[in-house]
Amino acid sequence: MAQSAVPAPETAAHPAPVRIPLREVLPWAVFAAVLGAVLIYFIGAEQGATSVFSGTWVHEFTHDGRHLLGFPCH
């Protein structure tokens, strides 16, 4: 008698999903949100009147990223 490679649904063991507590995820989510906001600021708004650093070195460093993400800068 040939045996099937796929077990029958009645005999297949279904593992329980892993539960991750919110208090373990929340600090990483806040960190990711703050980091994302800082990156968007430097790529999208670090020039002109809102500039934190003097000069144009941040603008020139993020220049191609601005155009790739659709931010106008010229």
Automatic annotation (TrEMBL):
Record keyword Transmembrane present: yes
Keywords attached to this entry: Membrane, Transmembrane, Transmembrane helix
A Pfam cross-reference name: CbtB
Presence of the UniProt keyword Transmembrane in the record: yes
InterPro entries cross-referenced by the UniProt entry: CbtB_put
Residues annotated as transmembrane: 25-44
The protein, known as: CbtB-domain containing protein
Taxonomic classification: Bacteria, Bacillati, Actinomycetota, Actinomycetes, Streptosporangiales
